[in-house]
Amino acid sequence: MSYYKIDNLEQYFKHYNKSVREPRKFWGKIAQENFTWYQQWDKVVEFDMIEADIKWFTEAKVNIVKNCIDRHLAKRGEKTAIIFEPNDPSEQSLHITYNELHEKVCKMANILRDQGIKKGDRVCIYLPMIPELAIATLACARIGAIHSVVFAGFSASAVASRINDSECKMVITSDGGYRGNKTIDLKSIVDEALDKCTCVENVLVVKRINSEIYMKEGRDQWLQPLLDAASDNNVAEIMDAEDPLFILYTSGSTGKPKGMVHTTAGYMVYTAYTFKNVFSYEENDIFWCTADIGWITGHSYILYGPLLNGATTVIFEGVPSYPDFSRFWEIIEKHKVTQFYTAPTAIRALAKENIEYVQKHPLSSLKVIGSVGEPINEEAWHWYNDHVGGKRCPLVDTWWQTETGGILISPLAFVTPTKPTYASLPLPGIQAVLMDEKRNEIEANQTIGSLCIKFPWPGIARTIWGDHQRYKDTYFSTFPGKYFTGDGALRDEVGYYRITGRVDDVVIVSGHNLGTAPIEDSINEHPAVAESAIVGFPHDIKGNALYGFVTLKETGEYRVRENLIKEINQLISDHIGPIAKLDKIQFVSSLPKTRSGKIMRRILRKIAEGDFDSFGDTSTLINPEIIDEIKDNKV
Ligand code: WT7
Question: Which of 15, 154, 405, 512 has the fewest CB atoms within 10 Å, i.e. is most exposed?
Answer without folding.
Answer: 512
